Amino acid sequence: MKNIPISAMIGLAFTALYFIIAIFAPLLAPYGMAEVVGDVWEPSSSQFWLGTDNIGRDLLSRMIYGGRTTIFIATAATILSFVTGSTLGFLAAVLGGWADQVMSRLVDLIMSIPTLISALVVLAMVPVTIPVLIIVMGLLDATRVYRLARAVAVDIAVMDYVEAAKLRGERQAWIIFREVLPNALSPLVAELGLRFIFMVLFVSTLSFLGLGVQPPLADWGGIVKENKDGIVYGIGAALYPAVAIATLAISVNLVADWVLNRTTSLKGGRG
Amino acid sequence: MSDTLLKVRDLKIGATVYPPGEKPHDIEIVHGVSFDLERGKVLGLIGESGAGKSTIGLASMAYGRGGVEITGGEVWVNGRDILKSPHGDIRKLRGGEVTYVSQSAAASFNPAKKIMDQVVEAAVEQKKFSRKEAERRARELFAKLGLPDPDNIGERYPHQVSGGQLQRCMTALALCPEPDLVVFDEPTTALDVTTQIDVLMAIKEAIADTGVGALYITHDLAVVAQVSDDIMVLRMGDMVEYGSTDQIINNPQEGYTQALVSVRSIEHEEKKPTPEPVLSVDGITARYKGLNFDVLHNVNVELHPGQTLAVVGESGSGKSTLARVITGLLPPRDGEITFAGRKLSPNLKGRNREDLRELQMIYQMADVAMNPRQTVGTIIGRPLEFYFGMRGAEKRKRIIELLDEIELGEKFMDRYPAELSGGQKQRVCIARSLAAKPKLIICDEVTSALDPLVADGILKLLLDLQKIEDVAYLFITHDLATVRAISDSIAVMYQGRVVRYGSKSEVLSPPFDDYTDLLLSSVPEMHLGWLEEVVAHRKMESAGN
Predict the structure, then answer these.
(1) Is B153 exposed, middle or buried (0-12, 13-18, 19+ CB in 10 A)?
(2) Using CB atoms, which residue from B328, B353, B368 is nearest to A160?
(3) What pTM was computed for the model?
(4) Do residue A169 and residue B361 have CB atoms under 8 angstroms apart?
């Protein structure tokens, strides 16, 4: 742990901070999530550190609970997209032939429709709950992970050691999980950070458009939506969640860059 | 001006290494090498990989490749120390006074530009010749190097000429600006033996005609003996021996040089065929998916238990395809394979575990034949687990036995492939195939990627193991010296057909068919004047026809 560059250190610190706040939200928040405690859009004071929102709830508490929701949804969706995407991608690379063709063309088909549009269509038809949000986001994003996992695994699947395993008579599962997976892990881990950030942006966008997390549940995109009218009157309440999203995105990216540098041979393992 | 073209004094070259898990640090890769090269002479630099020979070659252009830095010493070209020259002078030097011929012409030419544009580029850029003069000169060089249709070949793109021709184009590129010194970095290593001989002769004549000085870098002592006046033997960045070619070949002083000269002196008594072959390949015809021609035509060979069949041929002759057919990776269009008395299913899926266990394979590139994320113990242990259900202490004991058999020992068990040398990697691959207790091992060019002395060790090991384990080898190679050293019977392949097949003594004694004759006479021999003898012999023959 001693050779961590300063940028990665900053990234790690902020990412850790956000996750700790998300986990311990009920202990850290000064007020309840949906509790109306003051006037509309009160400025920041010793009582309300960040002021109040458009109907008089404490903005700091909303931010803390909102972070919890946003980070939880993004994390769960990322895990879902990685598990499905990489398993199917490896399978396609190892099987090849028509199985690969069918899966890849299907993924192309889904990717040809902008992700946001397909998400909006699906969410407009089914009741929006958090599990539905996670599944829709996770599966749509799995197409990206599938592409990466397949591309990486195709290179590995032609290696002599994979052929040696086939000649030995190994099963498909051994080849995928013991021969291919350990060698494909580094680019996937690096991608994990980036995909997580896209998930944060995605869920925030959906909430901002009103098809994501439903009020009174707080989330960062929702807070922007609720307070956006205040900007006209010089009230910056909508900017706090924007800053939170930006800092989280930057810090996770700093960590992802560092992991990428450490694990790929693209830069000779330096940095 | 003195006659010394290149004077190197106490040259030291360093590099920064980045070992995983450690801090980057600097190491020295060439430790104070000195030599002189006179105008019009050729100095051969020879050594194994990592000896620093290419690095020294590039240093004569004041260049360090990929993080390599010249840390000390002097390099004098035409009477001035180029390491102290200003940057503008170095620009004039590179591609003007000193030029470079690399190992892989195919990777060095720009595929998007015509050959002529690339050949004349340096000469025009350096204002040595006008574009017109340079093109005329290039055409002369093409003719001198024996390229077909020298007036028009420059109009082709690099992919439109063969590998041997492209290597000669690259020599023309290096000679075009009338340099004083040419650095040849393994110019024939990537070529087939029959092509190598033409390129070698062309280079030798071009050097003699143009009167340039040359550094000739190679790992093959027999090749360097044909072209150079002096030879310098290098090892791990140190000079081992430096003398005239005659002295180095006929009277080497140092132990290491003596070993290099006497490499491939393994004697192997040919065994008599047994009544029951372990493998018989009958009338195999095969093609790859998407091709409309056969890669193998009616191949028939037999291999007897505990013996070695060498399959010899140039690249593209179908020898590796034969291995793929036998292993079941490429089902043949016609013909059948009988193995250990039973008929083998044409494709891999139809074979049972016993078939798979008894037929093992060793690959050319040991580093991609092992999963980089598995330890040596896991790699060797997996066949034990998979075929014999061994676990725990029993498995460990057998792994250690196998590691002892390949002369590595228990301490290698927890190492990863990246922590092994090339020869050690190949030994682990041998142990992995032996772990299955096979009746037949297919060895696909297993020594071609290794340095000569290391390859010798591997061949000796394979022969010893054959005596102990009574395993048969199907040995695929392009190297006839290896064939002589190891085989009991030989199949010579050419364009997908077996053109000559029989016991070693039959195949290697006259009368030869044309192709076998060409192949046999093309293998460089370790004595002076061999190249001229072969070329003169061929000229006589073609005049006779």
Answers:
(1) buried
(2) B368
(3) 0.79
(4) no
